[in-house]
């Protein structure tokens, strides 16, 4: 009897070990992904402004992040910190949205012009209740944009401002006459008028911008837009404050009740791991549950864009109105020990994957998505750059934007993808995110993101209508899911060279787990 029990236990143990071995083997086995780039079916141009940035008067986003003042010990040029300016210039930032955000609808532009020592000090009621010195105003922002080579997207104050105030601001900025406002600009140090490329009439008018109904705002938009007057050929594109998350009503109302002056409609969506605003999740120290939930939630933007674009196509079949996702990115719980209203959060490899997924989605919607603005540029939410006094660190998100630079102004190329699913628990997403384009030099750029944190992906890419004579790329990955850069260790996560091999007319790329790659085919 004892011998028989031992035999049965041996059999059961052998089976269990075999099952565990086979399961581990399956988990370790690379996944095979097939991609066909339809180079013979070029699509729309990927607007460079899809890579836009957002800078709000919030926490250390402006003060310390960009502006330190001429008397600062931090190396600067006329008050702008040199390291941040150089990093943003290298990123080829196409456009910056300013001054908000919620801050915009309490911002009165006259507070930010003239001698700085005479500018009024206000309270930033939205973000921490701290003093707003107005040291960084219209002239400082417009100079900043020129320094980094970016266009400007100004958010006008509808919530607490007036039509006259907004009209005067545009005249002050753009007039080449001898009007009192133009001469005031000259007196304040700017002889030549500026170009204002985009002007937003209000921000989040459904919430912090006035708690309005879309029908009421549509009438306000018509009124305010009437008084957006600039010299001939200098009129900015006018952007309406739109909806957020899964909403479509704002697009429906605006496209049926506004007959003119509407160049674009904004939309906001923030990715949070939990899907619950009150308890979002942490920026570091998370597990695989939060990893996959974050990636799944960020993919929802694809559905939101599709639903709103369907309405645009119905009501604007000529395609004149763009869809502007002018706030997007990750939003986590406040970090312990920091002012919650400053929205400072660490930026990890997970954020890099979020950035790649979103950019790939925006590429696929390039016909209607004319601009997006990640929130935010420095020291706030999913930032490009984090600073601490005189020191600076480039985030994993920065590196993704840097790797994706060839897609700015490129021609979108559709792809046929065959990818397995990455599943953890009861959540499942495609294992690999893909987009492709032909850049201005005629080279095909392939963007790949392996969402699986455990398994390598072997991506075999075939070109239809083109041939690849060579392939080279850059790769971003790390060992830990929450790997990050700090001012003490600024190069923990940085791009490396990626090798790709040709196999006939195909290109084979091996993507490590949890990685982002951009491969150049020529």
Can you walk me through this structure?
With 522 residues, the protein is of the alpha/beta class. The chain has 2 domains: 30-43 and 413-521, Immunoglobulin-like (Sandwich); 48-408, Alpha-Beta Barrel (TIM Barrel). 27% of the residues lie in helices and 26% in strands. The protein has 11 helices and 26 strands. The strands form 6 sheets. Strands 16-20-21-26-23-24-25-22-1-17 form a 10-stranded mixed β-sheet. An 8-stranded parallel β-barrel has the order 2-5-8-9-10-11-12-13, surrounded by 5 helices. Strand 14 and strand 15 form a beta hairpin. The longest helix has 27 residues, at 2-28. The radius of gyration is 25 Å and the shape is globular. Residues 8-25 have low confidence and may be disordered.
What level of helicity do the residues show?
A: 25-40%
Query: Total number of β-strand segments?
Result: 26
What is the mean predicted local confidence, pLDDT? 94
- The CATH architecture of the largest domain: Alpha-Beta Barrel
Work out the radius of gyration.
25 Å
Provide the spatial order of strands within the biggest beta sheet: 16-20-21-26-23-24-25-22-1-17
Distance between the termini: 72 Å
Q: Describe the biggest sheet?
A: 10 strands, mixed
